[in-house]
């Protein structure tokens, strides 16, 4: 969401300068103001913050009066978005303006969390200490005065940052009971930074893990997706398992533990070990569907495990896996488009081995699958996480490179109008006939319209009712 006016390199610098200018302006109007949260943590770590948050004693109304353009996205929580000036992509609704805007939030404390995910009430405050106390972890509770560079640390966040520790602000059991999502955030930050989770914080998560179901499925899905795509997915999933959240959220993945595989194909170990190896190989950045496809590609193995006379077998694991993956996507409220792609990845992951024997038309249809680069990437990771044999992968790449685009995806030789002209009545069989023509075309057996018309004449009678 970077405006076309600002290059990718300029953008972070501009957003940072803009956040600082907001702090300055608020102070010029007599308010307290600081940078806060993840951006302070990241600046101290020398990392590029994903976004900037400002916290202030000014009320949302005051913030909206001071800045010419604002969006009251979360006014009930005291949150106002201030977009970068002249950023055309700051949408009027403010909905998609986050990447180009600074979040300005009024100091507040959150009161009562009867649903385990949202405060019942909030109270604005004049004291930054109260605002910090409502935040989740000490490393996310630092305030920065960008004018002097002074860090205001009211919660021991600097020590935890130096020691690499994730620790709740205040009593962990109380803080996780308030908002169960924080348990997933703890795992995500620990994985991202390679930190440990402080023992009290860790055991509170272990005790409260069964309550994670109070969090909306969308938020669970989004947290898991971040863990999968942020670059440390293996670490995140090992931690999820350690704290008992994996069993709650994805028991199908936990079930992979200890499921042995035939050593000649899988010298690496059991299905869980293999899946974690794939997670370790995910690219960064990574498409969410590829990450979930990698996580779920062998999900059908535990229920199909069988010790046959010759070796361990998982007959039908792909079909079973597709069903299970569908249930998981449904449970986590994935969009239809994402679900379709994740299921396609699971369904097709074993087909690369057949590539050298595929008919040309089958091969072309195979590599024309939407997002084929994700299928390729998954297959490569699958091989590299097991036997290491990349011959099917290389065969597919070479054959793909040898097929010109117009041969791969040729213009149709005939259309439905031609079928009507041939005396066929429109209906579901049209698709079947046109697919058969395309197959012949992809096999290189039909070169032009006349040949296609002749093919239809010979193989498909105009009146299907008479074809018995
Ligand atoms: P990221 O780098 O992933 O953006 P972040 O720490 O900036 O990490 P945000 O979700 O952007 O996380 O939230 C900004 C700040 O708001 C956090 O640093 C933290 O202080 C506070 N915060 C966010 N979510 C919660 C929560 N569920 N409970 C308490 N405080 C939270
Ligand atoms: Mg952030």
Alpha-carbon Rg, integer: 28 Å
Provide the CATH architecture of the largest domain.
Answer: 2-Layer Sandwich
Q: List the total number of helices.
A: 24
Query: How many separate domains?
Result: 4
What is CATH's topology name of the largest domain? Beta Polymerase, domain 2
Q: How many angstroms separate the termini?
A: 59 Å
**Any idea what the shape is?**
globular
Q: How would you classify the helix and strand content by structural class?
A: alpha+beta
Strand content: 5-15%
CATH superfamily placement of the largest domain:
Beta Polymerase, domain 2
Main sheet strand line-up: 3-4-5-2-1-8-9
What does this structure look like?
There is one protein chain. This protein folds into four domains: 1-163, Beta Polymerase, domain 2 (2-Layer Sandwich), CATH 3.30.460; 166-249, Hydrophobic Seed Protein, CATH 1.10.110; 270-408, no CATH class; 416-466, no CATH class. A hairpin with a 4-residue loop joins strand 3 and strand 4 (79-83). It has helices at 10-28, 38-45, 60-66, 128-133, 157-163, 172-178, 181-193, 199-208, 217-229, 233-243, 245-249, 251-254, 271-281, 288-296, 301-304, 317-331, 336-348, 360-367, 372-384, 391-402, 405-408, 416-421, 429-442, 449-459; strands spanning 33-36, 53-56, 71-74, 79-83, 101-106, 108-111, 121-124, 143-145, 150-152, 165-166, 196-197, 306-307, 312-313. It is of the alpha+beta class and 468 residues long. Helix 13 (271-281) runs antiparallel to helix 14. Adenosine-5'-triphosphate is lined by residues 37-38, 50-51, 53, 135-136, 140-141, 179, 181-182.
């Amino acid at each position: 969401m970077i405006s076309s006016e600002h290059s990718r390199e300029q953008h972070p610098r501009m957003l940072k300068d803009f956040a600082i200018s907001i702090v300055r302006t608020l102070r010029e109007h007599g308010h307290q103001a600081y940078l806060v949260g993840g951006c302070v943590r990241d600046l101290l770590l020398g990392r590029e913050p994903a976004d900037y948050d400002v916290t202030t004693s000014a009320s949302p109304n005051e913030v909206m009066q001071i800045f010419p353009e604002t969006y009251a996205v979360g006014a009930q929580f005291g949150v106002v978005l201030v977009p970068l000036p002249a950023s055309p992509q700051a949408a009027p609704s403010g909905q998609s303006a986050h990447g180009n805007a600074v979040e300005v939030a009024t100091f507040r404390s959150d009161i009562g969390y009867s649903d385990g995910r949202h405060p019942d009430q909030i109270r604005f405050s004049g004291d930054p200490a109260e605002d910090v106390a409502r935040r989740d972890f000490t490393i996310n509770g630092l305030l920065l005065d960008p004018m002097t560079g002074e860090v205001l640390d009211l919660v021991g966040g600097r020590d935890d940052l130096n020691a690499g520790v994730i620790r709740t602000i205040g009593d962990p059991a109380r803080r996780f009971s308030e908002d169960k999502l924080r348990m997933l955030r703890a795992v995500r930050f620990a994985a991202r930074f390679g930190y440990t989770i402080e023992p009290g914080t860790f055991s509170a998560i272990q005790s409260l893990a069964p309550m994670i179901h109070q969090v909306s499925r969308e938020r669970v899905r989004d947290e898991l997706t971040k863990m999968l795509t942020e670059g440390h997915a293996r670490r995140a999933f090992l931690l999820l398992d350690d704290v008992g959240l994996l069993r709650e959220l994805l028991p199908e993945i936990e079930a992979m533990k200890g499921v042995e595989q035939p050593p000649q194909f899988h010298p690496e170990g059991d299905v869980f070990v293999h899946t974690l190896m794939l997670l370790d190989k995910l690219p960064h950045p990574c498409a969410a569907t590829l990450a979930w496809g990698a996580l779920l590609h062998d999900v059908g193995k535990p229920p199909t495990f069988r010790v046959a006379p010759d070796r361990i077998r998982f007959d039908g694991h792909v079909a079973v896996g597709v069903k299970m993956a569908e249930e998981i996507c449904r449970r986590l409220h994935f969009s239809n488009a994402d679900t379709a792609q994740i299921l396609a990845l699971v369904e097709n992951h074993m087909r690369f081995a057949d590539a050298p024997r595929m008919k040309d038309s089958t091969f072309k249809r195979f590599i024309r699958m939407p997002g084929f680069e994700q299928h390729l990437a998954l297959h490569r990771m699958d091989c590299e996480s097991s036997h290491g044999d990349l011959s099917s992968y290389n065969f597919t790449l070479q054959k793909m490179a040898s097929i010109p685009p117009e041969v791969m995806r040729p213009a149709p030789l005939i259309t439905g109008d031609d079928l009507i002209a041939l005396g066929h009545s429109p209906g579901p069989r049209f698709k079947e006939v046109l697919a058969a023509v395309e197959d012949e075309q992809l096999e290189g057996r039909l070169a032009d319209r006349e040949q296609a018309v002749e093919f239809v004449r010979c193989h498909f009678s105009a009146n299907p009712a008479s074809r018995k």
